[in-house]
Design goal:
With 454 residues, the protein is of the alpha+beta class. The protein is 33% helix and 25% strand. The model has no long low-confidence stretch (mean pLDDT 94).
């Protein structure tokens, strides 16, 4: 089959690219044949699992605030962002019948909190402008003829399609079960492009002693690796409004404030994800990495120490504590300073908070080290041994080098008529709707640019 524009990849960037190409042509009174090739049984598989199924589809910040959350390629992305800023993206979905809501942190969701509504809206929009979406269409090879400027796309099973314009929107390597297996990066290399080093981002960091994994050192630790007793004590706990710092070679390399989750993978949640990009990159480069948690970021160590001592005195003078042993009093104290479910892991990680002084054969004194408790609350250190890999990483860091792509069009500098968008590019951002916005706006600009040359 011959088309005017072929799009490989039916995810966020690919569907938006196809829609923008077809709608741009229609606005100019032209009828372009645009086809999306998606190898999975239905498009938008990765969108379906975004935001735990709720799909935080964009972040409503303006460019100055938004760009501070882009970790790679912020200057490159400026033109794409303004081609489809968050308010226009929200209006696009609203215009096709999907109501939206904006929640804490400027995060936009479908009002239904169903990611399927985002996918259905994109598909409906594409079909409304005549885009053909072909599923279970796995691409084996891309051939490019400079003589007739055609791209020929060979599918498994022997069929092939051709077009003078080709948009590669195949994503990176994260969540391979959704179809992101790095095919587009391979084709980019075969066509002469540079692909920067790839590593998982927005993924779980695995503290030392959390998983039952042999050996030490920076490595991929599969999520299904059994947890240790220590990991089981932490798994399922969510901490809100805490501070977290990333240490690389014992030097602070980043600090964040917010919420963190202990899961079957390791350290996750907004804080874990924010710090994971630099942490994984440092680990793969052979550096030592640690995360320190500040459970009481609103007070100084001096103030907290004073408060801990005051609480200890209150417990000691409480008549109900008269016959309670020191260890139990310590547990009561910790219960006033942290969630009860966190106490077993906290005490296991900080055995120094309790000291036994043997005064004789039958006389042992138990000391509760209040200063040690305060210090541990302000700086609970987790040495990081590894990370969960592509199987559950939210995004891929690295990709097609931005030096090889024109930022105002998303067109390759090396192969005319070839465009890249979304996670295939060396772009990534924080969690919070930023990465889907990047996918939508780069797809939009690629589609407009591909249609505009006809």
């Amino acid at each position: 089959m011959k088309y005017d524009i072929l799009v490989i990849g039916g995810g966020a960037s690919g569907l938006m690219a196809a829609y923008s190409a077809a709608s741009t042509a229609a606005d100019k009174g032209r009828d372009l044949r645009v086809c999306v090739l998606e190898k999975m049984p239905r498009p938008g598989r990765k969108i379906m699992i975004t935001g735990k199924g709720r799909c935080n589809f964009t972040n409503m910040k303006d460019w100055n605030a938004f760009s501070a959350h882009v970790r790679s390629g912020s200057k490159f992305l400026r033109s794409a962002f303004y081609s489809l800023p968050p308010e226009r993206l929200e209006a696009f979905f609203n215009g096709y019948g999907m109501e939206s809501v904006v929640e804490r942190g400027d995060r936009a969701f479908p009002a239904s909190h169903r990611s399927a509504d985002v996918v259905d809206t994109l598909v409906r929009a594409c079909q409304g402008v005549g885009v053909i979406i072909e599923t279970e269409a796995e691409v084996e090879e891309i051939r490019h003829s400079r003589e007739d400027t055609l791209f020929t796309v060979q599918l498994t099973g022997g069929r092939s399609h051709s077009a003078p314009k080709l948009i590669v929107a195949t994503g990176g390597l994260s969540y391979p079960g959704t179809g992101s297996t790095g095919d587009g990066l391979r084709w980019a290399r075969e066509l002469g492009h540079t692909v920067t080093p790839l590593f998982p981002s927005l993924t779980a960091l695995v503290p030392r002693g959390y998983k039952d994994a042999e050996g030490r050192g920076p490595r991929h630790i599969p999520r299904e690796t059994p947890m240790t007793e220590f990991g089981q004590k932490l798994c399922g706990i969510q901490l809100k409004n805490v501070g977290a710092s990333l240490l690389v070679q014992d030097t602070v390399a980043g600090s964040e404030f917010g919420d963190i989750d202990f899961t079957d993978g390791g350290l996750e949640g907004p804080l874990g994800f924010q710090l994971s990009r630099k942490a994984v990159k440092s680990l793969t480069n052979g550096s030592r990495v640690a995360i320190t948690l500040d459970l009481k970021p609103g007070v100084s160590l001096t103030e907290l120490t004073t408060r801990v001592k005051e609480l200890w005195e209150e417990i000691a003078h409480d008549p109900r504590s008269a016959r309670i042993r020191e260890k139990e009093r310590c547990r009561i104290l910790l219960g006033k300073l942290m969630p009860w479910e966190l106490i077993p892991a906290f005490t296991a990680a900080h055995p120094g908070i309790i000291t036994l002084e043997r005064r004789g054969r039958a006389d042992t004194k138990v000391w509760i080290n209040l200063v040690t408790i305060a210090k541990a609350l302000k700086e609970w250190r987790f040495d990081i041994d590894g990370y969960v890999g592509w199987e559950r990483a939210v995004i891929t860091a690295g990709g097609v080098s931005l030096d090889d792509v024109v930022p105002k069009t998303m067109e390759s500098r090396l192969v005319p008529g070839l465009y890249f968008c979304g996670e295939t590019l060396d772009i990534d951002a924080d969690t919070g709707g930023y990465n889907l916005q990047l996918a939508f706006c780069t797809g939009n600009l690629a589609g407009i640019s591909a249609a505009g040359v006809f």
